[in-house]
Design goal:
binds 6-O-phosphono-beta-D-fructofuranose; single chain; 22 helices; six-stranded mixed β-sheet; Phosphoglucose_isomerase_CS; alpha/beta
Length: 512
């Protein structure tokens, strides 16, 4: 990449793309004009245009489960089927009424106290989106009530919330598309027991529960009232569901108008995705670069590095979005694909990771690509400027590296003698050539969050389409879930000697 930059003063202009206030600089990818042209040709050859039209029009792009993937309808994108948008709008109307009643103190708990604390119980796609957005919004937007999240079946998480909550004023949202996820139901039962202990078993505990689910019957069986059960359609996947009723905790905490801004951001990215030519289409370019890195260059990992504490949960959100969607290895015909698909996604706030694991990026044997995500507010503070500086320094240093000669020069400049210079210099060498994309967004707002989450969703779809896999099922996860159920139930189906041995050891340890 040093050579590519040295040979082309216009590389940044040629390999960056702006749309709706966002800027994607991919000049630090290991890409040339001809490679980019080949990748664009690959998108055409894969029939991506038809793929986008198929997804938006509600064709069963989730071909194993024979379902549409209409998360764009949840943000009211006009190219999606009117019936899907009408379904979303009907639920949204009920949500708006409910939120207004909570805010007005009309929807009260069993003892007549207003709701002041909302605890969102969900996991995976029923948790990560609202959690990310709540963290992103909280520092700059006024909150109408306290909001907490519990996902883990380890009750340390929910206990810490319940210990400081007032039962009479607490509302639990049980968010589960399937309403069968063990962790979420475990936490919901813990919440119910806590309420019953505090308010009395005779209290109307249904006044403290809301359900968001595709399995309305299971929510009713749990005891959640019909008027506080909000459906989510089958055609919206869990990891794409933040735009649906799953956004209720955000509406309650920040107001429905804030959620509307978020949807508008997603919708504006939908418009860009559906209309911009592929060569100037942010999600398509991001997807093609991901394919270039994972499939053609064989990179193992992809680190997402937000330079904003408010976006600290973005890597976890994208981890599910990308790895659960595209962690697949068979094509439409059930045949093994002959190429690498999704890389391992990980990351965290860049300024923090820099002092922990970035070392491997510089000098390890594995190769990783990076997304630097950098919000730019119009009037930056000193700390904002430090974030910008760190982000740009990391991406430049990873790209440029440090040669043996440069290492020697640096050591000599420190007054180190020749023998010691020769001994140490190889240890200072950084190979460089580490590819990164930098995404600039105009500050962290509900609208810009909507834009970037939709951008990544579309990226995932484009990649899945080109790789020829189904981005919308998750059969692999089921295997582990079923096995956990078997083990908990004491069934000895498929027991290997390691599991048998470990169970015996746990038995012995728990009998003491
Ligand atoms: O186990 C994986 C998964 O099914 C994810 O796809 C989903 O987001 C998460 O569990 C939670 O599922 P649910 O919303 O049905 O509780």
């Amino acid at each position: 990449m040093r050579d590519l930059f040295a040979g082309d003063a216009t590389r940044f202009e040629r390999f960056s793309c702006a749309a709706d206030g966002l800027l994607l600089d991919y000049s630090k990818q290991r890409i040339t004009s001809s490679a980019m042209a080949e990748l664009l040709a690959l998108a055409d050859e894969a029939g991506l245009k038809d793929g986008i039209a198929a997804m938006l029009s509600g064709e069963p792009v989730n071909f194993t489960e024979n379902r549409a993937a209409l998360h764009c309808a949840a943000r009211m994108f006009e190219l999606t089927p009117a019936a899907a948008r009408a379904e979303i709008a009907a639920t949204r109307k009920r949500l708006d009424t409910f939120v207004a009643r909570v805010h007005a103190g009309e929807f009260v708990g069993a003892t007549g106290r207003p709701i002041r604390h909302v605890v969102h119980l969900g996991i995976g796609g029923s948790d990560l989106g609202p959690r990310l957005l709540a963290e992103a919004f909280a520092p700059s937007l006024p909150t109408r009530l306290e909001l907490s999240f519990a996902a883990n079946v380890d009750d340390t998480e929910i206990r810490a919330i319940l210990d400081r909550a007032n039962p009479a004023e607490t509302l639990f949202i049980v968010a589960s598309k399937s309403f069968s996820t063990a962790e979420t139901l475990f936490n919901a039962r813990a919440a119910r027991a806590w309420l019953a202990a505090a308010l009395g078993a005779d209290a109307d505990l249904s006044r403290h529960f809301v359900a968001i689910s595709n399995n309305v019957a299971a929510a009713a069986a749990f005891g959640i009232a019909e008027d506080t059960t909000f459906p989510m359609p089958e055609w919206i996947g869990g990891r794409f569901s933040v735009w649906s009723a799953i956004g209720l905790p955000l509406m309650l905490a920040f107001g429905t108008e804030v959620f509307d801004d978020f949807l508008a951001g997603g919708r504006s990215m939908d418009t860009h995705f559906a209309t911009a030519p592929f060569a100037a289409n942010l999600p398509v370019i991001a997807a093609l670069l991901g394919i270039w890195n994972a499939t053609f260059l064989g990179l193992d990992g992809h680190a997402v590095l937000p330079y904003s504490h408010r976006l600290r949960s973005l890597p976890a959100y994208l981890q599910q979005l990308e790895m659960e969607s595209n962690g697949k290895s068979v094509d439409h015909q059930g045949q093994p694909v002959g190429w690498q698909t999704a890389p391992i996604i990980f990351g965290g706030p860049g300024t923090v990771g820099q002092h922990a694991y970035h070392q491997l990026f510089y000098q390890g044997t594995r190769k990783v690509a990076f997304d630097f995500v950098l919000p730019i507010c119009a009037t930056p503070s000193a700390t904002d400027r430090s974030l910008f500086g760190n982000a740009l320094a990391q991406s430049a240093a990873l790209m440029l590296g440090r040669t043996l000669d440069e290492a020697r020069t640096e050591l000599r400049a420190r007054g180190i003698d020749d023998a010691e210079v020769e001994r140490l210099a190889p240890h200072l060498v950084c190979a460089g050539n580490q590819p990164s994309t930098t995404l600039l967004m105009p500050s962290v707002t509900p609208f810009t969050l909507g834009q970037i989450l939709a951008l990544y969703e579309h990226k995932v779809f484009v990649q899945g389409w080109i790789w020829g896999i189904n981005s919308f099922d998750q059969y692999g996860v089921e295997l582990g879930k079923n096995m956990a159920r078997d083990i908990e139930a004491g069934s000895d189906r498929q027991r290997d000697s390691s599991t048998v041995g470990l169970l015996a050891a746990i038995d012995a340890m728990t009998r003491k």
